[in-house]
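Thread amino acids onto this structure.
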């Protein structure tokens, strides 16, 4: 079941974030971990601003199966390039456990994109696929089905 996140979901969401963070190169290399207090602060703000359609507005939904949160999307609205007079939307988190209902990640992203386009000031929606998503290529195919187009490439350097 897909639903809007609530404040009472935050402890379960943090556990899901920790589980999914374990898949990242940061966790695997020991370069970093999760700051639980910062995660809770960010999630509290996201729940508080959920559905707002101006800069700083957020969108936060979860996928729940049998009372357990197995998927999450958090989207945000910001000024284009931080200085524009219009808004862009992007996902901060789009994650799912191995136990998520198979169609739910698609539904989470679709709902976030629909929310973004409901703001008359939004001129762009960007979403990414990285290693935190178990199969970035499959996630990319989902974004293709949602009408998104590949745009650019992410480059990264890592501290030795």
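Threaded sequence (160 positions):
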């Amino acid at each position: 079941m897909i639903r809007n996140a609530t404040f009472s979901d935050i402890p379960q969401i943090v556990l899901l974030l920790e589980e999914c963070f374990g898949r990242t190169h940061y966790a695997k290399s020991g370069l970093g971990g999760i700051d639980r207090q910062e995660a809770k602060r960010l999630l509290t703000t996201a729940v508080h601003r959920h559905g707002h359609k101006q800069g700083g507005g957020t969108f936060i939904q979860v996928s729940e199966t049998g009372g357990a949160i197995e998927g999450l999307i958090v989207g945000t609205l910001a000024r284009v390039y931080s200085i524009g007079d219009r808004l862009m939307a992007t996902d901060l988190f789009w994650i799912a456990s191995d136990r998520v209902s198979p169609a739910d990640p698609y539904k989470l992203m679709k709902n976030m994109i629909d929310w973004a386009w409901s703001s008359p000031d939004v001129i762009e929606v960007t979403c990414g696929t990285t290693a935190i998503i178990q199969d970035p290529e499959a996630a990319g195919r989902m974004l293709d089905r949602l009408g998104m187009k590949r745009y650019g490439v992410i480059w990264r350097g890592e501290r030795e």
